[in-house]
Amino acid sequence: MGKAASGVSSLLCCPCRCLFCGVLSCLFSVLTCIFFSAGLVALVLYLLFRPHIIRATAVSGDISTFALTPRTWILSYNLSVGLQLQNPNKRIALRYHDVAAHAFYEGQRIADVSLPDFFQDTGETTTLEPVFSGEAPLVGGVAAAGFRREAAEGSTFSVDVKVTAHVKLKLWVITVPGPKPKIDCPLRIHRCNNSDHGTAPAPEFQPKECRVWF
């Protein structure tokens, strides 16, 4: 009696089990086909366009004013930086928009400036020249101590300049949304009007490769 009931139960469940297995098998096949097709398309596009990450180099830096008021720790600054952005791609042109530069000192953001949108053809190099001028408070005694130390050691200051932007990729006649590059340039810039060393020549700015990531 028990065996008969078990056989009937198996017969009743078998169609449902087969249907469930068939749906899973079909879904797995569809997903596998989608992933395989997407991977194949990505591989073909990569081999066709050979994309390369942009290169950024800081080629100049100038500080005419960099002073900290005692007690209030207000930093007065006037600095400019020259950055060269190179598009190393041979088949992809780049269109930059919402470009902005940010200056940091002792890990604190002291200034932001907007830069004009621009188009960069294949293999082209573009120079950006952000200028930062104004005042900003330094929070905490550690930042103020860092300023006093660098001022006493020759007035060469550690300024971090970062650039952000949105990029569109031009592939022949098609323009598609691209990544959002972030450029980070930790620099050492000498204060030009430093009077502590008389007429001693200021150290020459050394070009520096910047870090680029997405």
Automatic annotation (TrEMBL):
Membrane topology: Single-pass membrane protein
Annotated keywords: Membrane, Transmembrane, Transmembrane helix
InterPro entries: LEA_2, NDR1-like
Residue ranges crossing the lipid bilayer per the database entry: 28-49
Main location: membrane
UniProt cross-references to Pfam families, sorted A to Z: LEA_2
GO cellular component terms listed in the entry, alphabetical order: plasma membrane; plasmodesma
Keyword Transferase in record: no
Cellular compartment(s): Membrane
GO biological process, one term: defense response to other organism
Taxonomic superkingdom: Eukaryota
Statement: the UniProt record of this protein carries the keyword Membrane: yes
Residues of the Late embryogenesis abundant protein LEA-2 subgroup domain: 84-173
Name of the protein this chain belongs to: Late embryogenesis abundant protein LEA-2 subgroup domain-containing protein
